[in-house]
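Self-study notes.
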Amino acid sequence: MSSVLFPEGFLWGGAIAANQAEGAWNVDGKGPSVADCSLFKAHVDLKDYKAQHAISSEDVAAAMASDDIDLYPKRRGIDFYHRYREDLDLFAEMGFKVLRTSIAWSRIFPKGIETEPNEKGLQFYESLFTEMRQRGIEPLVTLHHYEMPLHLAQLGNGWCDRAVIDHFLRFSETVFRRYRHLVKYWLTFNEIDSAFRHPFSTMGVLTDRIPEEKREEALWQAMHHQFVASALATRQMREIIPGAQMGCMVTRRLTYPETCAPENCLLALKDNRENLFYSDVQVFGAYPQHRRLAWQRDGVNVVMERGDEEIIRQYTVDFVSFSYYMSMVSSVDAERREKVGGNLTTGVKNPYLPTSEWDWQIDPVGLTHALIDLSDRYRKPLFIVESGLGSRDTVEPDGSIHDDYRIAYFRDHILAIAAAIAEGVDVMGYTPWGCIDIVSLSTSQMSKRYGFVYVDCDDNGNGTMNRTRKKSFHWYKDVIESNGAVLNK
C-alpha cells in the first residue's frame, strides 16, 4: 500500500443534525418542525423507500394532536440539547477539528413568521458554538436540515410559497449576525436534491394538497425558491461575516452502467447528470439547458421573478459538500433486475458489492470516483459531510462494544479519500454521519446506529441515555491524531 497522506489542516470530525439529536422539541419556546411529525417506522420494507418517507396531511394532523415522544422519536432525539457539553467532551477526546450540525429554525422563529427571534433559542446555539470553539472544534453549520417550522409547511405548503424566501432570509440574517464571530463554515440546504424523494422533510410540501397533474411543477417551483434563497443567504453571509465560506450540500448518487452496452452507459450518464443538476446550479449559477428542455417537454412552468436568475448567477457557493453512502446502478432492464434499498432510493443490485444489514451497498472505491469526478467538474474544494454505516451494535457483559465492522467501513472509505487526494483532489475534510448514535432519518430508529459513541436508548425510548465509547471511538481517535498516518501500518 502506498503512503496515505492528508494535508495539514484537514478537518477531521463528525456530523449530526438538530432534528435527530437535540430532542427538547417543545422546550424553551421551540415550535414544532416538520421533523416532529416523523413516525417510528421500523416495520417498513427496507426496499420500499417511498413508504419510509411517506407523509400525508392526515399524518401531520395526527402528529400535532399527540404529545407522544415514542411514536415520534425525533422529538426526544438523544437529548443533545441538555447533554451537548458531555458530548462535545467526547468529540474533543477523539480530536475532532470540526463538528457539522444544524440550527433548528423553529428554535429561533417558532412559527417561522415572527419578526423577533426567540432569545432562548439563540442563546442555546451561542453556547453550543462557544463550547465547541473552546474545545478546538470548528462549527460547520447547516441552516436548513429537514427541520423547517411546521407552521410554514401548513401555511402555504412549505417552499411552494415564495413568501418563505423572506422568512428564511430573516432567519439566516439573524443567525449570521448572532454567530458571526463563532461560525465561518456554513451550508444552506441539506441534500437539496432530495426534494422529489421526500418533499415534506426537504421542503415542507404535502403532495396530497396538490392535484396530481401539478405535483411535479409545484416541486420544481419550490426548488427554484430554495435556489434563490440559497443565493441570497450566501450574499448575506458575505456581507455580515467577511471571510466566511458557504457550501452547497447534495447527495452524491454516483451511478454506474449495469454493462458496457451503449444504452446502459447513456442511461447512467443521464442519471449522473440529473443528480449533479442541483450542485451545477449552485456552482455555475445557471439552470442547464437540459433541465429547461425537460421542463418544456413535460409542460412544467417554473415562475421566475425578474432578477431571480441574476441572483443565482451572482452568488454561487465557495465549496461543494456532499453525502456519500452508496453507489447506484443504471439498467435499461431495471424492472427485471434484483433490487436493493438505501437511504437514497431503491435501485438495481450491484453483484460486485457487499450489502449492509439495511440493504445498502458498500462501495468505498465509488467515493474516490465521486471525488475525482466532482473535482474535475467544479474545480472547487470538496467536503464529505456525511458518510457512514448503519448497523446494530451489541453491548458485551463488560459494557464494551466491538464494532470492527464500522472500523473496516471507515478504514476503506478514508483510504478512498486519500486515493483521491493523491490524484490532486482538494478535500477540505471528512465528517462521518451520526458520529454519536442518533435517531435515524427514514424510520426514526435508534437500533440503526452509526456512532463512535453508543447512546443507551432503544427503539422504544428505554434506557439511561448514557454515553459509551465504542471500539471505533479509539480507532478514529488514532486516525485523527496521526492525520491518517496510522492507516499506513
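Second protein, same conventions, sequence then structure:
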Amino acid sequence: MTYRDRAAYLPFADAVVVADLHVGRAEASNVAFPLGEDADLRERLAALVDAFDPAEAVFAGDLLHRFDGATARAAEGVSDLVAVCREGGARPVMVRGNHDTALRTAWDGDVRDEYVVAEDPKTVVCHGHAAPETDASLYVIGHVHPAITVESVRQPCYLYGEGVYRGADVLVLPAFTRLASGVPVNGLYGPDAGSPLVPDVDAFRPVVYDEDAEEALSFPPLGEFRRML
C-alpha cells in the first residue's frame, strides 16, 4: 500500500481511503483555519485522486463533524468532495463513523457500517469505533486520530499492526482534516486508543509520511520505540 497526505492507496483494491474529514468542524467551533477548511479538504482529495486514479474513494467514517445534522455549508462541502471523486473517475463510498448519525442530511446514497474493499487479501474498511462483523485479513480504520511527538514536534502518523485483531492486520489512518491536532500515541498504553481494533497500541508500528521527501518512514512497534522518543 502507499501512504500519502494522511490517506492510503490500496493498489490491490484500486482504492484511496481517507478517514475523519469532520466536515463542518471549523464552522461548529469557530476555528480560523488559514487555508480554509472546505478548500483544503477538496484540493487535497483532488490531488490524491489525480495521483492514483483510483476506481473508488472510500470515506472511512466521520465525514461530518456535528452529530445533529449538516448545515447548508457542511452539506455543500460534502457535495464538493463527492464531485471531486466523480470528476476524477472514482466512485465515492461512504462508511459510517460515530459522528455520522445525520449523514443522510448531506448524502443520499448508501452508507455502510463496513465495506469489503478487496477480496484478496480480504480487506474491510470500517471506522473503528465498533467491532466489525466481517472477518478479514486486513482492517483499515480511522477514529483514533493518531499523531506522534518527536523532539517536541507533533505530526500525524499511521499505525500498522500485524496480526493484532483476530489474527488480522490493522491499519489506522490519521485524521484527514488538518484541524485535528491528533492524539499523541507517545502517551497511549494498552487499549487506551479507544478502538476495539487497537487492543494493544504497543504492538502497532508508527508510520510518518515525510512530505518533503515524499516517502513514508516506518518505525519499530511502539512498545519498542517508546523509550527512544
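Instructor comment on the second fold: The mean pLDDT is 88.
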